[in-house]
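User: Fold this; C-alpha cells only.

Assistant: Input:
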Amino acid sequence: MSHTFEYKLVTTRKEHKCWSCLRRIPAKSKMYKWACVDSGDFNNGHTCETCDEIIDLLNKEERWDGYYDHGYIEECLLNQTPEQYLEELKSRP
C-alpha cells in the first residue's frame, strides 16, 4: 500500500531528471514534486507533466492506483517520445 506525503506542481529552480521517463527537464519548468512511502520504502522525486498525465491514464485504464518504479514510463516508450506515447494512450478506445 502506498501513502503520498507530498504531491504538488512546482516550477523547478534547477534541472531535474523525470522519475518516470528519465528525461532531463530544464530549470524553470513545471514538474510534479512528490514524496511517498510504498511497502515501507520512502521515495521522492519529480515527474514531468507529460508523465503525470500518462500515469493518470494508466491508472484509469488498468484500474490501479499505485507506485510506479523508477523509469517505468521510459520502458513503455518503445522508441517514442513521452508525448507520442501519451497521444497513443488517448486514442485507445
